[in-house]
Amino acid sequence: MKNLPRRFVVRIVSRASLMIFVALALMLVPRVALAHAVLIQSSPAIDATMPGPDIAVSMKFSSRVDGARSTMLLSTSDGQSKPLTIERQNAPDTLTTQLTHLSPGKYSIRWQVLATDGHVTRGEIPFHVK
Ligand SMILES: [Cu+2]
After folding, report:
1. How far is the CA of 10 from the centre of ligand 1 (A)?
2. Which of 25, 28, 61, 116 pairs with 103 at a CA distance of 20 to 30 A?
């Protein structure tokens, strides 16, 4: 059998390597999706009743989060909301803040975090103060 022209061989090899590259890229997709920051534990817990007036808030996520590019808001049952100051991070997957002077009632912490994979996730933690 005659040898294949060199140009043809190069084309086959580059197509094969492209397919391998695409296959590897597809295998990586679920891994990237898993790196989203999902809230896995919080204090207050969702729908918890807490003694006031001061509450230390802690949120633990499934991946590292960038506290400087994340936000937390406290909303009250009368529809008002105020930004909370996120404290300097002691752990890369955890954000903390302090709530002070809360009177009894319904509240909610609305959070938005930036994970180190560049994706933003958000959620809400409703809770009661007794
Ligand atoms: Cu992600």
Report:
1. 37
2. 61
Q: Return the C-alpha torsion angle 71, 72, 77, 79, nearest 10.
A: -20
Report residue 20 CA to chain centroid gap.
Answer: 31
Tell me if 67 sits within 8 A of 86, measured CB to CB: yes
- Length of the chain in residues, anyone? 130
**Ligand 1 center to residue 29 CA distance, Å?**
10
pLDDT at 35: 77
Kindly state the tokens that stand for 110: 């609305």
Provide the total of helices (H) and of strands (E) in the chain, helices listed first.
1, 8
Three-state DSSP string of 28-66: HHHHHHHCCCCEEEEECCCCEEECCCCEEEEEEECCCEC
pLDDT in tens, 68-117: 999 999 999 999 999 999 999 999 999 999 999 999 999 999 999 999 99
